Amino acid sequence: MNCVEYQQMISRLVDLELKAAASTELFEHLGKCAECREFLDTMMKLTAELDKVGMPLEHSESISDKRFYVGDRMSAPRMAGPRSFRSRISTFALLIMLTLFIGLLFSVNISAQRTQEPIPQELVQPR
Amino acid sequence: MHSPEDSELLSQIRSGNERAFTDLYNKHRRRLLAYCFRLLQDRVAAEDVVQVAFQKAYESLSSLNKPELFFYWLYSIARNEVYSVVRRTRKNGTISSIDDEKDIWDEETPHELVLKNELAELVQYHLNHLKLEYREVLILRQYDKLSYAEIAAITGDTISSVESRLFKARKALAKKLAPYFNEEEKS
């Protein structure tokens, strides 16, 4: 057996998938091979570091803790499709509504100004 | 993860209690979301995949012959969805299955890498840049704590293929990170 094969065994060892008999054989080899000892050391460090990277979702889980209701409280599974697209659509719709609203206010203001009665000239002209 | 609880819930669904599916959803959603998020690195896309996976599972429950294997079945549905998303979003639209070491990595930007100072960031960075087929086995093993046989049940590979991909992924990661491990030891 060569070092690559022993290193594959080390990967299984790290995963606790190595059988006892194979472990004995591996540890015999590790006693003699510095390269494989170093590989084991690196694998252990890598596993520890990967564990530190940890779970990415916990802190934000509550933000969108969805529920999937069926039956009498049917809120059918949300249909597939890119949510970001839907968000963009709703943002776009909101922008259009806002523009229309501002335009409406502006036109109402102008038409109100136009319908005001003209100021009598004698009030405008200086005495 | 053979779960008698899943079997019980599935039998309730089959006898007309659809609310039991809500329990199944609540039981597995969080874990499935973490798995999809780790693979996709995109929270919104991961949530969409989870929703689609549950939806598909719900629609095709009748095709599940072994209810005790619901967990693997659900994961494999989600996995297929993840691969579909990746295929749609990748420039070349392909997922490599070549075993050469250089094909273990997705493209990386050296400029991005320079900005990573902390070891944890580097680990995360390199993990994210492993190709999907390597990253998924590592994630299923490292974070979902699944056995080789369980991973094989989800990915549809043989146990030896799972073992081989795990070894290659770890070796490639170790190669990238070994200098930083040594640096940390010295400091």
Low-confidence stretches of chain A: 58-65, 69-87
Strand % of chain B is: under 5%
Q: Give the CATH level 1 class of the largest domain in chain B.
A: Mainly Alpha
Overall geometry of chain A = rod-shaped
Overview of the structural elements:
The complex is a heterodimer of chains A (127) and B (187). With 127 residues, chain A is mainly α. Chain A has helices at residues 3-14, 20-30, 34-53, 58-61, 83-115, 121-124. Chain A has a domain at 3-52. Chain A has six helices and no strands. In chain A, helix 1 runs parallel beside helix 3. Mean pLDDT of chain A is 69; it is low at 58-65 and 69-87. Chain B has 187 residues and is an all-alpha fold. Helices cover 71% and strands 0% of the residues of chain B. Chain B has nine helices and no strands. Chain B has helices at residues 4-14, 19-40, 43-59, 70-89, 110-114, 119-128, 132-142, 148-155, 159-186.
